[in-house]
Amino acid sequence: MSTLASVRTMSAPAARRRRHINPAYAFTLPAITLLGLVLLVPLGDVFYLSVHTEASGGSMTFAGLSNYRRFLDDPLFWNAVRNTSVFTVGSVVLHLLLGMGAALLLNREIKGRTVFRVIALVPWMFSSVVVAVLWNWMYSPQFGVINDILDRLGIHSAAEIAWLGDLDLALPAVIFANAWRGFPFVMIMVLAGLQTIPREQYEAADVDGASGLAAFRYVTLPHLRFVIGIAVILDCIWTFRYFDLIQVMTRGGPASATEVLVTLVFRNSFEYFNFGYASAIAVVTFLILLGFTLVYVRAVLTEERG
Hints:
mainly alpha; MetI-like fold; two-stranded antiparallel sheet; about 0% strand
């Protein structure tokens, strides 16, 4: 009896722990397991391929870090790094400027404000492929509306600019197309943040004789600092890995003028069938995005802790 009592006494804390386990974990475990497999298995496969090279007969041979050493001397890789950086910074800056400007305008008490807000969201509703096809037509040297506008303005020397065929204009043209498509995201974030600012603070600033610019600097911006920071970090993550728009509009051309890291990975994988080298570039891209993600997570956790 004493032995049975001691067993019951020892098992009681374990039973209490089982009773205190949150049932939500049990319900979400299958989904978490499936999501983990979907994410980790391809990621592990990419890491595996990045340290192997293709051999005859389709087999893979271990290559160590040779794929990583290869892109250090590859001018196409560094060109893609430069283009990715320019594309990301240019797009994010334009998203921020256009999105904040639109949010400030649409936050005012104007007639038909709801309609204008819906219209401003239209670019965000289209898929990247649709936007790419649309801007391809607009950039067309012979039939595009942009060159037609230049012609009507009397700029005849610029009437047939090959926007996507010019080495100097192709990347800015793609950036502008992406800016048009992506600014509504920042607009929504900033507009939501503007709704949380107490009107009393603007009234107090007005009583103190603050100008509109001063009120924006000392009232609006401090309240939007966290929102803008999160929007910029998320936008950097999405833009850095952006593929659809560039692939459809230019396929990385002309002469690699718009080649970014993700299109370089695609080209090496499905055009040159150099899976080991493409995987090494993909790993580097993943690590850079992981850095952005850690910054985002840290910012969110810091805000939650106050």
